[in-house]
């Protein structure tokens, strides 16, 4: 907290509502109490919460809790799509001169509004690599303390491959509304490109989906992407979580996982060194396992900044992960050096961007090849 920052501390019912938010975890409340030298027999909010409500929070405690809350809300996520490009025109010249963004937002109830929006701009002086940043305000007066108003950022980034045959569209978002808006902008641009002859009318967007891989190749893809990401500013350090289930449609599983049959529908393993467990290292079981997601720890470093972070690589579907699209979700960034004083959001964006190139290479390497 800076010396000049004014803080309005929540008390009583407002503090109760803040502590009750799902993004405020029991471990964070425990840490506040332990820093005071207070230890409780239970870590549940029902025990720690009333203590903090009665005693209140110091400005420093509230700032730490608030920033943790915001970090969870604003953790950047990214998805990538590709489509065939069929034109010699460079990308920046192919962008329409005007786009009706308010119509794309299409909010009939006045909950969302575009608070910031940039024009499409070339990146690194490359006319075939463009991006557009935006922010959306979300208002919800019926929500509790800390949630009645929030601003979320997003980016639509488009790049034409070096051979000029493929368009890669990266959608970065921090909330469902920014993902939905970025998706609408992307679809509007593709419709425009098709009408102008830059993309053939029968070309379809390719999305990195769960169903693009066999069980075995999905494990290989996620292992390759999480542990061997070339060109990025990341160095793999550990696997923390694995989300998987046995594939009951594949008969005769090996004896070491036969116990899962008809018993396990969905399993999440948490710990350390999970990439060395037999679920990952024993290739004989890969055809019999549906791997939905992997969360890993990394060091990041370039000439500007360094630190650590955690990234979740997950095929996430609304109801069924097996219908999901690959999503990358960055969390727990911790800075060690920051030579240019970049914001957390700017550093997060650089980390995610550095993964894009190898993500597509690994996808092409391991996906099911169409005849």
Write a structural description.
By secondary structure, the protein is an alpha+beta fold. It has ten helices and twelve strands. It has helices at about 10-20, 25-35, 45-55, 60-75, 90-95, 100-105, 175-195, 215-225, 280, 345-365, and strands at about 75-85, 110-115, 120-125, 125-140, 150-160, 165-175, 205, 235-245, 265-270, 290-300, 305-315, 325-340. Strands 1, 2, 3, 4, 5, 6, 7, 8, 9, 10, 11 and 12 form a twelve-stranded antiparallel beta sheet that branches. The chain is globular.
What secondary-structure arrangement, pairings included, does this model have?
Blueprint: H1 12-19, H2 26-35, H3 45-55, H4 59-74, E1 77-84, H5 91-94, H6 101-105, E2 112-117, E3 121-123, E4 126-139, E5 149-160, E6 166-173, H7 176-195, E7 206-207, H8 215-227, E8 234-246, E9 267-270, H9 278-281, E10 289-301, E11 305-316, E12 325-338, H10 344-366
Antiparallel strand pairs: 1-6, 1-7, 1-12, 2-4, 3-4, 4-5, 5-6, 8-9, 8-10, 10-11, 11-12
Helix pairs in contact: 1-3, 2-3, 8-10
Q: Which terms would index this structure?
A:
371 residues, alpha+beta, 12-stranded antiparallel β-sheet
**Elements, N to C (H/E):** HHHHEHHEEEEEHEHEEHEEEH
Q: Based on DSSP secondary structure assignment, what is the total number of beta strands?
A: 12
Main beta sheet: 12 strands, antiparallel
The helix fraction, in percent, is 25-40%
N-to-C terminal Cα separation, in Å?
59 Å
* Tertiary shape: globular
